[in-house]
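Friendly challenge for the regulars: who can give me the structure tokens for this chain first? No prize, just bragging rights.
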Amino acid sequence: MKKSFAYPYGVWLAVFILAPILMVVVYAFHNADGGFTLHNFSYLPGFPPIFGRSFWLAFLSTVVCLVLGYPMAYLMSRLSASKQSLCMMLIMLPMWINFLLRTYAWMSILENNGFINQFFRSIGLISFLQSHFGYSLDYIPLINTQGAIVLGMVYNFLPFMVLPIYTVLIKLDRKLIEAAQDLGAPTHLVFRRVIFPLSIPGVISGITMVFVPSVSTFVISQMLGSGKNLLVGDLIDLQFMGGAYNPHLGSAIALVMIILIFICMWIMNKFDDGSSEEGGLLL
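First reply, four minutes later:
Bragging rights claimed.
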């Protein structure tokens, strides 16, 4: 009886995950005439800068999310239950708004006449730069930069870092922390040798949940980067939706991207080999 409840999930998995991946594989190894070919992969040597840029910006956004997200999750886990619920609502509130609308909002904030540049003008920062450093523009270029893309990634994916870490931290056995304190361990040592090692599974999950969508995004880079900083997601999108319609090349790029992402996930999982549970007991 219980196995029957798994059938809908199996159908969902087959239709919306396995079937699309299979289609990508088929398109990647066939040409427009339906014949088997490896020619689609011959174009890949021309795209290393795009792959490198995608992984670099995804790495930066993941690091920023970890630096911001871990303290947030840690502080949340130490609050009362009612305050934890409030913080959770504040973190999830932006997620209730459409992804595109949130990105459009950042476009308005970062544009040359946006809120931030208007603020800089009002406090005299731009006039100071013009008079003392020969700055020629009447605004600070914020949009259409790699920094804007990273900012968009961090804003949209930060909850995916906070929630897994928070979920692990609230389940920690407080007796371990109290035991470490009773043994005379200072606060920083308790965190380094007890709390953080035990929270490694949440950190690994958060890194994976942030890095994977960051490295494959295309909407954020198109809207906040204006196509000037082409990422792999943009490249694949151009092959399927752009003027140079070539789904076979797009599938080949997507297949390589899938393999690289799985390799990155495999490497990250090597850091969570089960030793974290023991590491939290060592003082």
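The chain has a mean pLDDT of 89. The chain has 14 helices and no strands. Your move, everyone else.
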